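Worked Example 4.2. Consider the chain below.
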Amino acid sequence: MPHDINLITTVAAGLGLAIIFGYIAARLKMPPLVGYLLAGIAIGPATPGYVADLELAVQLAEIGVMLLMFGVGLHFSLDDLLTVRRIAIPGAIVQIAVATALGMMTAFFWGWDLGAALVFGLALSVASTVVLLRALEARGVLESVNGRIAVGWLIVEDLVMILALVLLPPLAALLGGKPGDSADAGNLWTTLGFTLAKVAAFIALMLVVGRRVFPRVLWLVARTGSRELFTLCVIAAAVGVAYGSAMLFDVSFALGAFFAGMMMRESEFSHRAADESLPLRDAFSVLFFVSVGMLFDPMVLVEEPLKVMTVVAIIMIGKTLAAIALVLAFRYPLSTALTVGASLAQIGEFSFILAGLGVTLGLLPLEGQSLILAGALISIACNSLIFTAIEPVQHWVRSRSSLARKLEQRTDPLAELPMSVDQSYLTGQVVLVGYGRVGRRIAEALTARNIPYVVAEQNRELVEKLRARNIPAVSGDASDPAVLIQAHIARAGMLVIATPDTFHVRKMVEIARMLNPEIETVLRTHNEEEAQLLRKENIGKVFLGEHELARGMTRHVLSRMGVAADNEPL
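Applying the procedure from the previous section yields the following structure tokens:
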């Protein structure tokens, strides 16, 4: 037997208890991640019995964060990030400021000094990217406009927290703590400038070099025909770039892996890379939740219940309401506001790092770290329930609140078609919902054949660009009757739903048929079971992505082989 098997024991105990507690949680109609958190508590230092190696568990969890963010990057292009910058950048900064202020005021009320209050407030202001991605993926909305806004928002939060982690050591002495080890502790502006320069250098390197190198490397490896070599290349890229970015540029592991994924997305093998890395991403993300549970001391719930409730209220109510108000202020629909608000109603990995650094620098008391961990555990456990409540809350608010209806019906130049739109676009036209990769190609085909159409799109920036090109477009959620009414669905010839989010498809079709009983509907899906269900419900003509790809490839093969391809079976 080897002398040191801490790593094997930690992985075995963590995954073994996670499957047991996760299964119990699922049987009780609770999210499995609640079971993963309980598994961490069971093998943590605060409970009797076996205690796993916490340091190893945290490192394993960090690998999970890398792989998960790498997977997001594979589905999230630079263009996607830029299209939501107008809301993600100011929204994230203002929301961090509001949440930090709430945390600081609470800390001052408890008698803490400025340094402790600042660290405490910052720790409560930043949400967990891991928890958000799991929630968005579970609901199939990661690639929707709402999902992109939420992910972009958290990327901005990560960048702000990187600056906070770098600036805390030189500021520690001024805030009442121990001086940090930074070489530039005497010059705050030099430290800030150096940090920004390193982050900018990393991003520039990835955009200039990474975009060319990663797809080429992936192509060369794929040519070998070795599946294990391909998987190894994907994992090595994710972990290697994440590690290198942290060591050389002081960028977080998560952000480095995210950019690696975005660069590899340029490859034609990006979908295969995402599929190959999925099992490892799932396994290590479980270890992330287990490690969170290991950090938690249940006694804080007994000793400081009111303080724990206050922390949870700031995280799940204060942050959420601030985010919802900000999104509505940018004139996005209520569904987007609720999705972003639910995404931010938790805290995670950056909060733990900030709390640990605050304790090391003598700024944050140990009580503050315990409260932050308690808030993280409770908010993570409840986050899935908050996402589940989005739809009923949206209906309840719209039906009960006149203010909510006024907010959605207020004058918005992008929510109504301009008066200058030619009437030929408003009779017998195609109403195209979604202007993503699929919707854009459909629109180009319609334009080439002079077929009139109106675009309904949630992304306000896209709507502005379309109108600049004199393309009729309306901003909003097409599951809201007002949006389809503005697109003149009552006189349309066809409704084409090109958005990948099939969650609201039935509502869109229901509204369209109520206003125009004769309208023809066309929609897309990536799920075969969902496609069969939609066909049975007679929702409309359903196109399945993989089926259409196979049909197109088959036609090409048969035509090249000199065989008629009109009635090929698929």
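The chain has 25 helices and six strands. The two ends are 56 Å apart (CA to CA). Compare this with Example 4.1 before moving on.
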